[in-house]
Structure formats: structure tokens, C-alpha cells
Specification:
single chain, 443 residues, alpha/beta, 7-stranded mixed beta sheet, 42% helix
Amino acid sequence: MDTPEMEKVITAAHDALPAWRARTAKERAALLRKWAALVTENADYLSHLITAENGKPLAEARGEVAYGNSFISFFAEEALRVYGETIPAASPNQRIVVLRQPVGVAVCITPWNFPLAMITRKVAPALAAGCTAVIKPAEDTPLSAQAMVELAVQAGIPRAALGLVTCDRPKVAGAGKLLATHPLVRKVSFTGSTGVGKHLLSLAAGTVKRVSMELGGNAPFIVFDDADLDAAVAGAIVSKFRNSGQTCVCVNRIFVHERVHDAFLEKFVAAVSKLVVGCGSQPDTHLGPLINDNAVKKVETLLADAVQQGAKVLHGGARHALGRTFFQATVVADVTPSMKIDKEEIFGPVACVSTFASDAEVVSRANATSAGLMGYFYTKDLARAWRVAEALEYGMVGVNTGLASSEVAPFGGIKESGLGREGSHHGIGEYLDVKYVLMDLGK
């Protein structure tokens, strides 16, 4: 799409706003439930579509469809719970009422790693709140977005109320600028890299738009000396290698207490060696390809820097024999804070392991990053669990689990990992303005 075409989509969403927000919450909820039912009916088709354009294993794609659909169902119910307030006034002849009203046109810019779920996590609360929305999917994965919009229209959601803009890579910067600066857009929600998020924030500031940002992470995974090592290994595998390591909440740094380091590493390498790299459509595949050649080159660059500085590759460490963008599941030990791989988000199937000696040391090292999205740790000590969960400077913390995402919980980060929350009752609040009304009843 060129700029005039994108502007038409934005204008159409703005023109559709009065009618959409005038619908009752019950009516909007009913349409969202119909949309969710159609997603369920077409789950197999959508799963294969995700695998075809993203490359992730079909089992993971099916999981994404279910996860993404959970947000539509959840926010269909949240639409009915957008409550106002009454506040006791200072004067007996006055009344104070607080209203929560839709922000307006919401632009939802989504990434390629979860091409379906990141759409529903943004669009479902926007529509439930009474906003209209414009989706800008990643240029690598536009097909899932097109399919989801078509199902929404089949469910009865007006096409103009859920617009879609697509473009190829050379036009991405221009599209982002248009969407973040257009005067008819009142909300921008973005999931992607921290650098792009900062740029969009600066653009949106010109018209003081509401923004939500879910940006990059540098997740620590801490294994304390009292941890269940088998459970920790299983948690590290699922968190590190899901989607071939291409998620914002993937484990980036594994810290293992020196007393259990060797035992953990032996179990972990053994588990990693069983992971099968292959085409996502094959039933035995655990790791599909990386999204493009640039992603592979980044992984190779980070690995080369780590090895040059003394890190040891215990498993994998190179492109897979399948070629193209397939990469081996990799384990690297003796990683230090000076290495780029310890500082930067890897976004690939590389697990970096180092040791620690005390709780204070590992918490300090875990927090020594500008990112603050997700952290994980394993322990059997309840007191330690509370202390460490509160001390970790992250928006989300998983205790004795490697998966923490849920439609009922607030997803989001702190520091340079973002602003705002998605999911839970907090998620719909990102698309609502608070209006204070003072009524004077006279004498």
C-alpha cells in the first residue's frame, strides 16, 4: 500500500468510530464472541498459515491460535465491565461522576514472531472498549493479519472499524511515521524492538498520543542451589527454544549456582541435543528456521564475539545442515558480562550459561541491564521466592516456570522494555480515557 491508501484506511476507521462506540458493550461483546467462534472453527487453517509464513513448528502455531483467541474471548467479557465511578463531592449540591470512554482510533503495530496473537492482544481490548483499530502487521508476516481481519468481518465487525495497512520493507519507515503522527490517530500500540519503539514514541509525542510499548527483553533465568534441576531444565528448554528463541520473553542469560552448575549443565545439554531442527510442518520438528538471513547473521556475530572472549560452545554453534536460515540449538558456557551476547537480546536458539555464588550477586547481575520485561528463577525456598521476585527489576517474573503468558494477567515491562500492559483488566484500560464530570444541582 502507498501513503494515500493508508490514509484512506485511517480516515475510514475515524469515520466508523461514532457508530462503533455508540454500540452497547453487550453488542460489542457479542460480535467479539462470534469472532472468537470463527477463529476456533478455522484454527487448523490459521495454524498452517502461521507455520507457512513464520516457520514455527505446527504444534506451536496451534498453541498461538488458541492463545491469541483467548484474548478475544476474555475481552468480550471485559467489554461488559468498563465501569465508571461516583465520588463524594465537597458540596452537598454537587455530584462527581467519572466516565471511562474510548480513546479513539487505535493503531496496532505488530511483530512477525507471533503474527496472530499479537494482533488479538491489542485489537480485542481496543474493539471491546469502543475504539476502532488499524492493524499494521510485520512485512514478513502479513497473511495471518489478513485472515484475522476477514474472520472479524464475517463475524459482523464493520470492515472500516478494523482496518489493515500492509507494505513491503522499503516502505516500513514511512508507514510507521504516518501511523504515529496522523492527527486522526489517538492511540499507538507497538510490539517490537526497543530502538523502533523509541523512534515511534518520539513521533507520537508530536500529537501527544496515548502509547503502549512492548519492547525488547534480556531475560535472566536463575537456578538456585535448592532448585528442582529436572524442572529447571524443562523450564529453560521451553522458554529458551520456543519459536527458535525468537520471543521477547525468551531466556537470554542463564545463571546457575556454582554448587549445581555442572549437574544442571549436563542435564541441559542432554535435553538440548534431543531438539530437532526442521521444517515447521513436520511433526517431529522442535525448532523451525529463523525469520530471515539478518536474524542468522546477528546470532553468528554474537556467538563469534563470545567465543573470542573465552566462552565455550558445548553444543551446536553454527548454521544447520538444512541451510538457509536454519540454526542449530546451541549452548554456550562461561559467558561473562563483557560479552555482547550477555548484553543484547539474542533472538535465536542460543542458551548462554554462567555461574553465581550468592543471591545478592545474581540479583545484581540479573538487574544489570536496561531491559526489564521478563525474569525467571527456580527455588524451593518460599522466603527466597518472595525476596527475589520483589528484587528483580522486571515487569513480569516466573517462579518455577518457564512460561508465564496468560490473557488474564498483565503482560508488559519496565525500564526500556516498554510502557503499559496487555491482557487482564489492565489491558482494556490502555484504550480508555478517564473523564471527570462535576454536576452542580443548584440551591
